[in-house]
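lol ok so funny story. i was supposed to be doing the assay writeup but got distracted and ended up predicting the structure for this chain instead. priorities right. anyway since i did it might as well share w the group, maybe its usefull for someone
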Amino acid sequence: MLDAVLVANRGEIALRVLRACRELGLRGVAIHSEADRGAPWLDAADEVHLVGPAPASQSYLAIDRILDVAARARVDAIHPGYGFLSERADAARAITEAGLVWVGPPAAALERMGDKLAARAVAQAAGAPVVAGTDEPLTDPEAARAFVDAHGLPVAIKAAFGGGGRGLRVVHQPEDLARELDAARREAQAAFGRDEVYLERYLARPRHVEVQVLADAHGHVVALGDRDCSVQRHHQKLLEEAPAPDLPAQVREEMTAASVRIAREVGYVGAGTCEFLVEGTDCSFLEMNARLQVEHPVTELVTGVDLVRAQLRIAAGEPLPWDADDAAPGHAAPGHAVRGHAIEARINAEDPARGFAPAPGRVTRWEPPSGPGVRVDAGVASGWEVPGDYDSLLAKIIGYGATRDEALATLRRALGELRVEGVPTTTGFHLLALDHPDVRAARASTVSVEQEWDLSGLVAAEPPTPGLGPARPSRTLTVEVDGKRMEVALFEPEGAGEDLGGGAGSGAPAAPRRHGPPRGGGADEAVLPAPLQGTVVALSVAEGSAVETGQRVAMLEAMKMENEVTAHRSGVVTAVHASVGHALARGDALLTIARDQAG
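and the output, tada:
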């Protein structure tokens, strides 16, 4: 039996696992990087250890350092959460060889399912439907062109050892193939330490539906229902719901049965998810996420199964109390029939009006919603500085109801109660999405957000004022306007001086914080500023290059995502103010583009 568990992760998933440890009577040990000192989730741990500097490669991905902490803390097991080490076979092997329990699938299963090409082979061996794709990693653009000639465009370039949408590029035009192949390999290398990529036929308007599985070390495997995760941006999920609405019964049964066969074929142990693309009554295996999923709360709410507790019990050697052979096709395990509906909104520190640009910074106000049917999984608190080194996820807000309409109404109410200040979030997008006809009618696809929806009504967040720190509330007033009760918060920027908005000790309220536009970047300005805080990972132009409005000129990496920067005007590049590897703040000068004579 287990006694102590080290949680090798951060944010809301670290808190989720630490809570499960406490509920099971296990000692929970947390680690943190220099960037996460004083993080709010660390309060839930029985013991806390610094593991390394801010870069993930020196902290949350540093297996040797994590093992050193595990030895000093005298733990029995390591839970990797999701992301970071969770799908690393070398981590699983090193941890088990150190005599510790790895809370996840065996290293051999991780090797096969972590390699997306090997996972395709496993799915085919298990009789699961798969989409057309290459069977070997690609480095040669000519081999990629041969696949395009055979299967047509569009095609998806995917990281063979990745997930979460990183290292994934969609090619619609043949002239973009070589460039996107290079970008996908570069992004895969940065995110996963491996640059192998492969091609798959890209389906035009599929739904993304996945099946949750649990397997123990005694040969029992069960599927715990399905989820729809079709509302995405940059191939990363924004809304997830369980069960998948309006899914044909035969598709649900085919995916459920295929997921159980795949788990058995690979010798899976623990919690995992088989993902599929669905078009009408056809489904194709996409990949298996050999770990807990971000969206696991919706499955927990509709089945009553605590997936994190189940992971810990399986890791301790306990058998599952049920098996797929005992469950009706397409349903949860016996005794855990799907009841009701749950919908999750991922609250990210991003600006949806600026192409979901990541936006790290200090959260000056955090007030989560509550009430009937609302669940909040969060790793944030007021005053917390959201680092730019990691994923942009702040929290997950989940609405539950007896019906899908009730769940939608609960989530909409909860998002209306949520109060976040200091950093932009995706909340405005979620409110738009919940009222969108595609979501209401359950016909959203993986391309809806970026190709079909009108997001022009979203308001861009104002940039921080240069030279001033984050605003802090100095007074909150309750007023009535036309019989309506309203709260008005007055803010004072840190570092602005004692007498801003009135003399020191005058009793006058502080002046509202005002934000100026980014330095340069207007259509009539020569300087193109960085649209977000990030690191330059690619430059497409040099001094003397002629550019057109909208042409890609650079790529910035921020919060584990690459973001395209385009020219704001046509002209000639007369100065390049940053180089590859250069860290920029939002508004810093990137290029100077002088108008050509024709402009």
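The chain has four domains: 4-103, 132-201, 207-450, 527-594. The two ends are 73 Å apart (CA to CA).
back to the writeup now i swear
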